[in-house]
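Exercise 7 asks you to align residues with tokens for two separate proteins.
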Amino acid sequence: MFTGIVAETGPVLAVDRDADGLRLRLGTSFEDLAVGQSVSVSGVCLTVEAHGERDGEGPDRWFSVFLAAETRDRTYLADLAPGDVVNLERAMPADGRFDGHLVQGHVDGVGEVAALDPVGEDWRLRVALPDGLRRYVVEKGSLAVDGISLTVAALEADAVEIAIVPETYRLTALSGKSPGDPVHLEVDVVAKYVEGLLEGYR
């Protein structure tokens, strides 16, 4: 379980394809990682398979994750290349602060950046929504975009607009996004539970 408060960004160090599938090696400053732990990689909950220290430039540690077929089908992680930057968040400890919203790391769909424009000191992000997600999104509600807990500022028939504060723009990989780039979207899980509960009354 995560809160959508990105701890840091990390570079993709390597993309390894073999007979078993696809693995990513990512740079990080996270300490005391352990095999089996969960890490949110741009909003996708993945399991640490291996980790270690680095001697080269950049982050002083690394960890690797395996991308299952379901993950490759539902996300854009299989399209990443060395040098790309991802958002990283460790799983929330039981006694941790809950500063964002309930984020599972289960991607509901991949949206597309339609615009990312400065508005004074802030930024305005517009994301085209994939089919089927619009009904779960409400104005002033929560939406995880590449693992970042964000608040919906405006809602259209097929797109959503979000106000990005300078700190979020600076600390996350959003600053490297351009129109046409994909983003992982996870709607508020409460909306899906409510829909499931109401199904029987339709």
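Second protein for Exercise 7:
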Amino acid sequence: MFEPNVQRVLDLIRPGDLVLDIGGWARPFNRADWVLDAEPYETRGYYGASLPAQGGSREFFTRETWVTRDVCDRAPYPFADKQFDFVICSHVLEDVRDPLWICREMQRIGKRGYIEMPSRVAETCRGTEPNQVGWSHHRWLVTIDGQRITFLMKYHRIHSHWRLSFPARHLRSLSEAQQVQWLFWDDRFEAEEQTIHGVDNIESELAAYVAAVRPYNATLLGLDRVTRALAHHARRPWYWAMRRLAAGQSREAK
């Protein structure tokens, strides 16, 4: 969780509130009374001393209140409607196969909550991992706008060309706050998936997002457009027919 928001979350939790942390295994939020995660209680704290637990020094949850299960298995979580006063889900939804299911269950069992994920701009930068755009284990490009979360599949096309992502220097220019996004919700929020059909449309969406920031100079973009135009023509049968015809005429001229 973004460190400045830890205290904000704690301030929203009243002493008698019942709190759930969904996906808290790697870095548990200690104020949570319950944790729901695919990994077992005994192995909690994957990040160890480099990223210690947040939410206080004492664990409120116990082995008995740690529920180990697939959070996306489409079976209702073992909790009653609005059982929890506060639900935390930090850096989980971008990883999982069905974030919409988790969002629905969060709203069913929780009254209020906090959600955090990497920003789309950070997920679109090269330089986080070698030869990757963003984090290799993340499945989604996410946008939070007000009380709406939009999930766009992180299409493999994003790794295919530099103009579909930001250079590593852009990532280095982002503050910690710009690399994450969050949502404080009360009772309800909206969650949806954005789908795109067709390779050209996928590429257009990714390129348009990057182009809006203009991280590349005009000369580089101009050379790229010429290169892609030539490559596009090279795929057309008439292009090669004209090349063969021109080659034949050149031999006859000699």
